[in-house]
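Form 12-C: Joint structure prediction
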Amino acid sequence: EVQLVESGGALVQPGRSLRLSCAASGFTFGDYAMHWVRQAPGKGLEWVSGIIWNSGVIGYADSVKGRFTISRDNAKNSLYLQMDSLRPEDTALYYCGKDGNTGALGYFYGVDVWGQGTTVTVFS
Amino acid sequence: EIVLTQSPGTLSLSPGERAALSCRASQSVSSGYLAWYQHRPGQAPRLLIYGASSRASGIPDKFSGSGSGTDFTLTISRLEPEDFAVYYCQQYGTSPFTFGPGTKVDIK
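Section 2 - Result
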């Protein structure tokens, strides 16, 4: 069964850091691009960042650029999101998502597998 | 950044009716890389359509996507109770990949 399980969400104060992890199973992790998508309370979906199969970074949302860093470890079937200088507006449910393609040469498919999410709350 | 606008914000329909959801982009979506997702409360989003018009694996043919350039449409031919949800479009042709604000389809 294809599965993504996020972890690392927590209650933190503004300015602090947090690292989210996503453990993948049931598919060849290193063959696919991966994404982080978040949903703030009562709001819509927001693409946060993405990374292609070979760790090339697709990019970041303007709202997190310079503060968040995406990475992956294909040997550990894991995706990460390092979040620094957290702000109250980063409070959200963070989803890990698998793309249906590698991302090589700009080929993507959309997020065809989603985790259940991990909650980050930034409060003062 | 490509901004996506979805309309209407809310669509109130009865089971059995047809739904047409619009997604408009602020600039042309590269390679037709436009996806539609269904999001039910308490669940993870679900990919319905990729590449503007291709159904994802396991998606019934009552869902169809069309459009190109800056104007895209998701059509649900006959609404069933499980189809009442929020629908998002996403462009993934130009970084940053962006989502629209969503259209809520609720029961009239």
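Section 3 - Comments
Residues 48 and 58 of chain B are 9 Å apart (CA to CA). The radius of gyration of chain B is 13 Å.
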